[in-house]
Each structure stands twice: as structure tokens, then as C-alpha cells.
Amino acid sequence: MKSYFVYILKCFDDSYYTGVTNNLERRILEHKSGLNNECYTYKRLPIELVWFEIFNDVTNAIKTEKQIKGWSRRKKEALILQDWDKLVLYSKNYSQFGNPIKPEK
Fold first, then answer.
1. CATH class label, 4-69
2. Which residues contact 90 (CB under 8 A, 6 or more apart)?
3. Taking the model in full, what pTM does it have?
4. Dist. CA 66–CA 68, nearest whole Å
């Protein structure tokens, strides 16, 4: 059975890069080598792998990658730290529930 990986890299400039691959070790080496000057990580080396998850279905892997790419920085950091309470909190629809971090006036 083929495996697919969704991963998050922390770049030198403190930004995050999210990607998907079928060979995580090879893909990380490609990022670190800086061969592709069009790649997001090219000008942000060195990079560090901070999170990954394994999938058996490429469709689910791609769906998860796109979902994470749309997340806020703090939500990505909650995932990286496996802080499930904050991940849920940062997933709330503040227009419906209000923002618990910023008290209402």
C-alpha cells in the first residue's frame, strides 16, 4: 500500500511551509538542497520538519494539505504542538461564537 505524507516545515524566517509527498525523506532533502529557486523554501533555508502525518489515500492527503494551508499561524502551531484544546478554540467561527481571546465590550 502506498503512503502519502502531509508535512509542515519551519523556515529560517520563522514562516511555515505545508506540502504533500509520497516520499518524505526525499522531499525534505529536495527542500534542503535548494535546487528549485522557484520553491517557497529556497530563500528561507535552513528549514526544519516540525510536523507530518501519514495517509493511505492521496485524495485525503491533498485535502488535508489544502485545509492546513488555509489555517492561521496559531492554528498551525497548535497542530504542531498537539494542543488539541487550542486547535478546537482556533477553529471556532468567531462571528457566531465571539472571540474568547478578545473580550467583547
1. alpha beta
2. 71, 72, 74, 75, 78
3. 0.86
4. 6
Q: How far apart are the first and last CA of the chain?
A: 55
Q: For 16-45, write each residue's pLDDT tens digit.
A: 999 999 999 999 999 999 888 899 999 999
The C-alpha cell at 2 is 502506498
Domain borders along the chain are 4-69
How far apart (Å, rounded) are the C-alpha atoms in residues 89 and 21? 29
Query: How many CA atoms does the CB half-sphere of 40 hold within 13 Å?
Result: 12
Q: Which residue has the cell 530563500?
A: 43
Amino acid making up residue 3: S
Could you tell me where the beta strands, DSSP code E, fall in the chain? 4-11, 16-21, 47-55
Q: How remote is the C-alpha of 13 from its chain's centroid?
A: 15
